[in-house]
Amino acid sequence: MSHHIVQALDIHYTYPDGTVGLAGVSFSISHGESVALVGENGAGKSTLLQHLNGCLLPESGSVRIGDSFLNPKNLASVRRAVGMVFQNPDDQLFMPTVFDDVAFGLLNLGFTEDDARRRVAEALETVGAGHLAGRPPYKLSIGEKRAVAIATVWAMSPDILVMDEPSASLDPRSRSRLIALLQTFKHTKIIATHDLDMAAQLCERTIVLHQGKVTADGQTVDVFRNEELLHLSSLEKPLGMQNCPVCTTAALLKSPRSHHPHGH
């Protein structure tokens, strides 16, 4: 299933004002992997994600999605394969109603109105936003907007899901719902986030970016145990991995062994 592969080959990108966004980024992600992308503000996370669906094109190096190297001629097919949820949901919501926003991409792909209506309803129900279908997006809360933005991408059934800070501004219940939802997505997913606890729950692999370069790429648990690496990237170990008595007690209570009379 090579159409789910994502590969970055020595990507360089400099913004028009001279700011270096990416300085030689390389990695390869295979089908079905869940990968967290972490780093301090300005590390290059959003810049990198925007290269994966052609919003930005590298000044040197290349991006491979599936069997094709991304170029201006195949942007449409790449964007069908790579579903991108932007950091700011207002960048994705521009139609008069929530329903229209979720239907927009489907109708552009040639879905019939009946099929589009069915998929819109399914996508909105999936993110817990079915009741918002008739509402204008600008009247929604940030959490509701984020759920709808995810639905616009979910409805398109992408091979690869790319998300930029999906849990930002979500209340605890909405965050838990998002994590549960993402656990059901079995294809490739790449999630840029400052929420390292969410990353630890969802992603078995983590790539660390620092000043536009990859400084680590490995098993999430190993990366998050490396306190020196996290410190260099202005990150803190996830709460779930800190020696917090409350977290430890909660973990013990959840552990099946804790209910065994001889468990120790």
Strand order of the largest sheet: 6-7-8-3-9-10
The largest sheet, given as strand count, sense and whether it forms a barrel, is: 6 strands, mixed
Q: What is the H level of CATH, i.e. the homologous superfamily?
A: P-loop containing nucleotide triphosphate hydrolases
- Tell me the name of the CATH class: Alpha Beta
Structural class by sheet pairing and helices? alpha/beta
Helical residues, percent: 25-40%
The N- and C-terminal alpha carbons lie at a distance of 44 Å
Low-confidence stretches: 251-264
Radius of gyration: 19 Å
Give the overall pLDDT as a whole number: 88
Would you give an account of this structure?
With 264 residues, the protein is of the alpha/beta class. It has a single domain, classed as Rossmann fold. 36% of the residues lie in helices and 22% in strands. It is built from 10 helices and 10 strands. The strands form 2 sheets. A 6-stranded mixed beta sheet has the order 6-7-8-3-9-10, sandwiched between helices. Mean pLDDT is 88; it is low at 251-264.
